[in-house]
Amino acid sequence: MIILMLMTARTHDAFAFASLLTVAVLFPPASLNLVTLVGGIVANIIGSLIPDMDQASNRLWDLLPAGDHLSRVFRRIFIKHRTITHSLLGLYLIYKVLEWLLPRVLNPEYVDANIILVSMMVGYISHLIADSFTKDGLPLFFPIQWSIGFPPLRALRITTGTWVESWIVLPVVGAYIFWFIGHYQLELIVLLSLLKTA
Q1: Do the Cβ atoms of 18 and 169 come closer than 8 Å?
Q2: 185-197 vs 170-183: helix axis angle to the nearest 10?
Q3: How many CB atoms lie within 10 A of CB 69?
Q4: Strand pairing partners for 66?
Q5: Rounded to whole angstroms, how far apart are CA atoms 13 and 98?
Q6: What are the pLDDT digits (tens) for 34-58?
Q7: CB 20 within 8 A of CB 183
Q8: Measured in Å, how far apart are the chain's first and last C-alpha atoms?
């Protein structure tokens, strides 16, 4: 069953957003406008969905025109779930494609393509980190079929789609977001104040 194979999309969304908040506070942008802020959050969610594009049930396909047909084609290309899209090679290739594509499709007068790129890659990397805690681990060095997970002992890792994810992992990520916002509220206010001057 697909839900048992991959961490649920809502967990990835929450983990990606928590990661984006953390990166934004630790490495604040020099400037920010409302369109880039909203675009960055959307890009972060899309980035968190990209590694699972090898699954026809991925929500990313629902966002694209003719996504249902595209998903069938891409599913055949990837052979099976958790191959190249869950590897360092896949991460690098997606980064290079987005680095080339985003400046060509986004209007620089309204949107900072670099912030969108970073937001998307934070989402992507957060997905890989989250999946590394699952029973299946990650083929980080694909095409070498060597699965890496944390903790190294597979029995201590999470089985996705179970009560552990729904009742422990997701609430812990949610609690982290609330704690982070409370603890770094001054930094976040400074970050949001950039919107007035942008």
Answers
A1: no
A2: 70
A3: 11
A4: none
A5: 20
A6: 999 999 999 999 999 888 876 655 5
A7: no
A8: 47
